[in-house]
Amino acid sequence: MILHKGEILFRQGDSGDHLFHIRSGLFKVTRLHPNGNMVLFNILYPGEMVPHHSLISPKETHGTATALIQSEVEVISAKTWYRELEEDPKKPLEVARLLQEKVRFMQMRLDHLTVGGPAERLELLIRWLDEYSQGIHLTEYLTQEEIGQLIGVRRETVNRLLRGIDKVI
Known about the structure:
Layout (H helix, E strand, L loop, with lengths): L1 E2 L4 E3 L7 E7 L2 E6 L5 E7 L4 E2 L13 E4 L3 E7 H10 L3 H24 L3 H13 L13 H8 L3 H14 L1
Helix pairs in contact: 2-3, 4-5
Keywords: Activator, DNA-binding, Transcription, Transcription regulation
Protein name: Crp/Fnr family transcriptional regulator
Pfam family, one: cNMP_binding
């Protein structure tokens, strides 16, 4: 399945009848809290099998995944996935590897959030996203507010940092 920028892969609260293998592209995952606060809490990238929390057993989706750029996804029936998990002795190791990769990614992101100042965190985010963004600049698919959520600063700080980068380019 091909999704274009802005198209939804899954919505918060969906039943989880499918899992998705991200073949190319990027997705942002947002969560709407009961108080109306919308938070960007994850970026999905090629190679991931999602939702992560449903790799072993079904659960409704925790957030909404929206394509940031043109993306290709393989849709997998959850029933088929769980049946294979029970029947194929190699499948649990595959799941363990997928979860291990996500843990390693989260460790990298935590390192990025705890190193240096905001400018360095922004540079690390840009460098990481450039690996998957097909040459599209970060500001073409994420808002300043979303960038701020990913690097732990306010939108105004992102605006200032981006103006500084533009002067260098």
